[in-house]
Design brief:
Helices cover 50% and strands 12% of the residues. The protein has helices at 28-52, 58-68, 84-97, 99-117, 121-132, 249-286, 300-328, 334-360, 362-365, 370-383, 388-399, and strands at residues 138-141, 157-161, 164-174, 182-189, 200-205, 211-213, 228-238, 242-243. Residues 263-385 form the Acyl-CoA dehydrogenase/oxidase C-terminal domain.
């Protein structure tokens, strides 16, 4: 992806001043293996407590940032230089272990891609290199109250004050809220009749005066992602925090935010579906009828239903991987495939977790069952924007060569 480049020089910073990412190279296989190790050693053992205590997964995020924080940061900046395919595969691995942690990492990766897309020398030195070194957590702050799932319709005002920018507004559902070092914030020009989608994007430091966080996240599922509201009351920041040019954020939305956001979510929820499938498969292999001694695994109806579940997960996995590969290559089917990937995985994870719960019976319905958590986490796939119906409509528009956002 050529637009994710730091250029030949990383702002004059000597490479010895920061360590490079632990995982390097151009193939996603090593990154996936690293994610699998961290998922087994850190994420999975903490997943139940992250869910039960509604706590932000500090241990898991620390481990992931240390070794995979620079997954999509260009190699010239010390990162791994990987793209959507790696995000999808890593997301499935982390999503299997802990969906909350996976989404927290996913939003960091999306924001990292946004910063990388048109980074200045200053942003390369002060943002991308720390991200690549695992020293900086970033995330998105795009959604706002009252606009539903249309996160591209920003109302947060940005006023130019010489070499400073002044932000006033409110954001909602900010994943990693209060924990990140920086936030990618969408804004519109204050007092101007700005066309929908013609907004600007800035990077807000976590310690900027004028930021007020809302109450902790209390969702039905995804309980650890700490998705909070954020109030901005005249927050001042230097113009060096402007990403790209003023008013060109619609380019970011459809060239960076949407592809990475959709794939990060698709990978995570694919992981949840795969985890539910494996959980019920193991349950069926263990269980026998108390009187007859017959194994549940020997029942034709059980075999049929489990086989159907496996096929649905595998079809969705192949769509997600193909979408990521096509988009990474800039292929013509990239757009409809990306849109369909998130819509398809939302329906798959809902169906598979429900079916797994049915096959597991009362044991699966118990509050301490992993299926209980998978069902609640997976249901968020339909809720997180863009909504499934919107994605289906956009897919049709893309195929019919119509504007995605309408006339």
């Amino acid at each position: 992806m050529g637009w994710l480049s730091c250029g030949k020089h990383a702002g004059g910073v000597r490479r010895g001043e920061r360590r490079r990412s632990v995982v390097t190279g151009t193939e996603p296989g090593v990154a996936v293996a690293t994610a699998r190790r961290l998922a087994d050693e850190v994420l999975a053992p903490n997943a139940a407590l992250v869910d039960a205590e509604r706590r932000w997964p500090a241990e898991g995020m620390s481990a992931l940032l240390s070794e995979l924080g620079g997954l999509v940061v260009p190699e010239e900046c010390g990162g791994m230089g990987l793209g959507l395919s790696a995000v999808a595969r890593v997301g499935e691995v982390t999503g299997r272990a802990c969906a909350s942690t996976s989404i927290c990492l996913g939003m960091h990766l999306v924001a990292s891609a946004v910063i990388s897309a048109r980074a200045t020398d200053h942003q390369r030195r002060h943002l991308l290199e720390p991200i690549a070194a695992g020293e900086h957590l970033t995330t998105l702050a795009l959604s706002e109250p009252g606009t539903g799932g249309e996160f591209w319709l920003a109302r947060t005002a940005m006023e130019n004050k010489g070499d400073r920018l002044l932000l006033t507004g409110e954001k909602s559902f900010v994943t990693n809220g209060g924990h990140a070092d920086s936030y990618v914030v969408s804004t519109v020009a204050g007092g101007a009749d700005t066309l929908p989608g013609r907004f600007s994007c800035v990077l807000l430091d976590a310690d900027a005066p004028g930021m007020t966080w809302g109450a902790p996240w209390t969702g039905m599922g995804m309980r650890g992602n700490d998705s909070r509201s954020l109030r901005l009351d005249g927050v001042s920041l230097p113009r060096t925090r402007l990403l790209g040019e003023e008013g060109d954020q619609i380019w970011y939305v459809f060239n960076v935010v949407a592809p990475y956001f959709l794939i990060a979510m698709a990978g995570t929820y694919l992981g949840v579906a795969a985890a539910a499938l494996e959980e019920v498969r193991r349950h069926l292999l263990r269980r026998r009828h108390a009187l007859s001694g017959d194994a549940l695994a020997a029942q034709p109806m059980v075999q049929h239903r489990l086989g159907s579940m496996w096929a649905r997960v595998e079809r969705t996995r192949r769509l997600i991987h193909q979408a990521a590969e096509e988009a990474d290559a800039g292929g013509p089917e990239g757009l409809p495939a990306l849109l369909s990937a998130k819509a398809e995985v939302a329906e798959t994870v809902e169906s598979v977790t429900n079916e797994a719960l049915t096959l597991a019976g009362g044991i699966g319905y118990a509050g301490d069952s992993p299926l209980h958590r998978h069902l609640r986490d997976g249901r968020a796939a339909h809720v997180m924007a863009p909504l499934t119906d919107t994605l289906r409509m956009w897919t049709g528009r893309a195929l019919l060569e119509q504007p995605l956002l309408g006339e």
